Amino acid sequence: MLPIALQQNGSNSSDASPTLPSATAEPTAAGPDAPVLVPPSTAGMTTKVVKGSLWTLAGQVAPLAVSLVATPFTIRLLGAEGYGVLILVGLIPTYLGFADLGMGIASTKFGSEAYAAGDAEKEARTVRTAAVLSLALSIPFAILIFVLSGWLATLFNVPEHLHVEASLALKVAAFTFVLNFLNSIFNTPQLDRLRMDLNTFVTSGFRMLGIAATPVVIYLGGGILGAVVVLFIASLLTLAGHIYTSGRLLPQLFRFSLDRQALRPMLKFGGALAIAGLASLILLNAEKGILPALVSVEMLAYYSVAFTFASMAIMFGNSLAQSLVPSFSQLWVAGKMAELSELFSRAVFFNLVILVPGCVILAVCARRFFTLWAGPAFGENSTRPLFILLGGLLFLLPAYVPLSLLLSTGKSQLLAKLYWIELLPYLGLLFILTRTFGIEGSASAWAILGAVNGFIYFAFGKSIATLNMSYFVERAKWFSAAVVLLLPGIVLFAIFGALTTTLLIVAVSLFLYLLIVVFKVLSVPERTWLVKRFLNAVGI
User: Cys-Cys with 299: which of 241, 286, 295, 476 at CB 3.0–4.6 Å?
Assistant: First the structure.
């Protein structure tokens, strides 16, 4: 399944100053106006990817933390109906996420290739071209949302007393819809240079301000419309921040020419991506429509909470992918296949190292979190679906690495074919399992789809890059030992639940896992890099 969020964030490099573009044109002996292209160095790409992934992950976790605090106030101030309408207003534009034909990812891919060639002017033209295409493609959809806002409010059964406010909120959301596409394009120079720190500050900073301000505006009488206006302002400030920051990295961005030669390949790549995204949207959300139809709306609520919690594990996969797409693009266009394969292998391994304990922590914390956050009924009914979803993610998340490779090498057509081929079989499987097993059946169908796609992504990825098996073999013994140490705590948890003794054993197991990974699995250079990053983080 396609991670749509891939086009929203970015990464970070080792450059200290955000004001210096990494590729410039210099005069040659042939003439003072004849530029020579200076490709940037690809040395230390793995370090840049890991560092950028951590920044991106922080940029996803921080808004989530703010949301966990702000959302209960929003729910209580708006009431259940009002909050439902606010969610609906945000969801309707989301379902049209294919409208700009994936120009955010297209901009990152083609911009990264130009950056890798040292062609700053072409990189800037690529961003501008993607922005113009995005506007041309998305504005008609925004106009439809604006004009049909009243009809949409009626279609989705908005209560009569909230109908006018919902209609006005959808009109505002139509403008935010276009701004969000532009945000995913104008952060391209930051992604190309793996400056995820800058991208995180801009994207997550204004997003957190918007989330925090929402209950305040509602409390002051702004209601649903005020909340949507706050999110529009946050998106507008984000766009201004991206244009300013990217312009400092790439001064050529502020010129006015377009890259006419890039129009066709960008539309071809983005068109396939949009077709894939449309099928992916159905694959990712079909169970949320079938579950209430076959079981009940109440079960949909329980499932949605489990799915949202499981999505916390997806954050790391997305964070890694957002750094890998520009990195793979640069290595691919430079023809550095050995470095690309090495990065491919390291990324898969680091994904596994972090994913395993992450899923254990989510599983152990689930029931208590659900009970405290949403009530005992959610603790009882959301926990088992979460366990099933995590099982599927264990296969899907490592495959974000070959998925990133497919996107960065322009293989979006493969994804489009895959998703549409498996759509009908998946809907049939989902229907049968949901009708037979209820909420656990829906979760099982999604987990099976995730696992199958994980294997397919790796099969596709192997046709481009090779996994360095010696890298895995050197670490397999100690990594296996670290995983085995987690088993006692998992087994006890499965039998006795979240007892204090069980949680203590799980905590000890996780600590031993961490020790083995740090001192036995990681190489000396990798361990040294980690120590330096930790010391920098604590200010030592």
Answer: 295
Q: Which two tokens stand for residue 450?
A: 């995730």
Chain-centre distance for alpha carbon 142: 23
Distance CA 482, CA 225 (A): 51
End-to-end CA distance of the chain: 42
Helix/strand number for the chain, H first, E second: 19, 2
What are 139-178's pLDDT values in tens digits? 999 999 999 999 988 877 788 888 899 899 999 999 999 9
* Distance, CA of 247 to CA of 409 (rounded, Å): 26
User: Using CA atoms, how far apart are residues 419 and 375, in angstroms rounded to an integer?
Assistant: 36
The pair phi, psi for residue 60, each rounded to 5°, is: -95, -35
Beta bridge partners of 12: 195
What is the average pLDDT across 64-82? 82
- Residue 202 in contact with residue 60, Cβ under 8 Å? no
Residue 445: partners with Cβ closer than 8 Å, 6 or more residues away? 287, 426, 429, 430, 433, 434
- Give the tens place of pLDDT for each residue, 86-140: 877 887 777 787 888 889 888 988 998 899 888 999 999 999 999 999 999 999 9
Q: What is the 3-state secondary structure (H, E, C) of 453-496?
A: HHHHHHHHHCCCCCCCHHHHHHHHHHHHHHHHHHHHHHHHHHHH
* Cβ-count burial 186-198 (b if 16+ within 10 Å, e if not): bbbbbbbbbbbbb
DSSP β-bridge partners for residue 31: 28
Residues 234 and 245: their CA atoms lie apart, in Å, by 16
Cα 49 from Cα 156, distance rounded (Å): 42
Contact present, 481 and 516 (Cβ < 8 Å): yes
List residues bridging with 25 in a β-sheet: 37
Residue whose entry in the numeric block shows the structure tokens 């500050």: 201
Angle between helices 500-516 and 469-496 (to 10 degrees): 170
Q: Give the count of alpha carbons within 13 A of 305, CB side only.
A: 24
Integer-rounded Cα radius of gyration of the chain? 24
User: Taking the alpha carbons of 154, 96, 138, 264 in that order, is the dihedral positive or negative?
Assistant: negative
Residue 84 makes CB contacts below 8 A (sequence gap 6+) with none
Strand partners, 26: 36
> Cα angle vertex 383, ends 207, 379, to 5°?
85
Q: How far apart are CA 309 and CA 364, in angstroms?
A: 12
Q: How far is CA 505 from CA 315, 363, 488, in A?
A: 27, 14, 8
User: Cα dihedral angle (336, 340, 341, 346), rounded to 10 degrees?
Assistant: 140
Contact indicator for 224, 80 with CB cutoff of 8 Å = no
The answer to whether 396 and 1 are in contact (CB under 8 A) is yes
